[in-house]
Specification:
CATH topology of the largest domain: Arc Repressor Mutant, subunit A
Mean pLDDT: 77
CATH class of the largest domain: Mainly Alpha
Strand order of the largest sheet: 1-2
Number of domains: 2
Structural class: mainly alpha
Distance between the termini: 28 Å
């Protein structure tokens, strides 16, 4: 992200400039956050909603947006192809009603949603484990970590700052270890 940092960079221990940069990055992220989801999340959301009741495409979009608290509003360009794919797979069917296609689960679709299990959390559930892009869970977590580090840098004692540096160094090593596993 160009222009996310102060023009002159961070000079010395200019924590206020770093905090300002983190806040700017956070505000940019929040404007875009939640607009995209992982490939399988749209599919899971559609199946979960249709397991409750038949709906037309824009109802599905509105329900996902409402249930995610506005953090995820899938586009028609992601929902309608997913509906077509699910119909091609025999998991849903479409029926015309008042000029609209109303989608509902087939028997095979009910079996698949039942097979997914009652324990499966909905893709819009904020406590759901992140899958795919997980509603941008990793960048959000990184920004929140940066905010916490900046706060320690601004208000912490020298000892607290050193302890925070050690925690961040350990976190960085552990993240690289995750990549090394695969």
């Amino acid at each position: 992200m160009r222009n996310s940092y102060p023009a002159g960079g961070f000079r010395g221990n200019n924590v206020d400039s770093m905090w300002q940069a983190v806040e700017e990055l956070r505000s940019r992220f929040e404007k875009r956050a939640g607009s995209r989801a992982g490939r399988g999340e749209v599919r899971s959301a559609v199946l979960a909603l249709l397991a409750e009741r038949p709906m037309h495409g824009y109802q599905i979009i509105r329900e996902i947006e409402e249930r995610s608290g506005g953090s995820w509003k899938p586009s028609a360009g992601s929902v309608y192809p997913t509906l077509q794919l699910l119909a091609d797979e025999g998991l849903i069917r479409a029926e015309e009603s008042n000029g609209r296609k109303i989608y509902s689960l087939t028997e095979a679709g009910r079996e698949e949603t039942a097979h997914a299990g009652a324990d499966a959390s909905a893709p819009w559930d904020p406590t759901a484990p992140a899958s795919g892009t997980g509603f941008a869970a990793l960048p959000k977590a990184g920004l929140e970590l940066a905010q916490a580090a900046s706060q320690v840098g601004r208000t912490g004692t020298p000892e607290q700052v050193q302890e925070a540096v050690a925690v961040l160094d350990d976190a960085r090593r552990r993240l690289y270890a995750i990549l090394a596993q695969g």
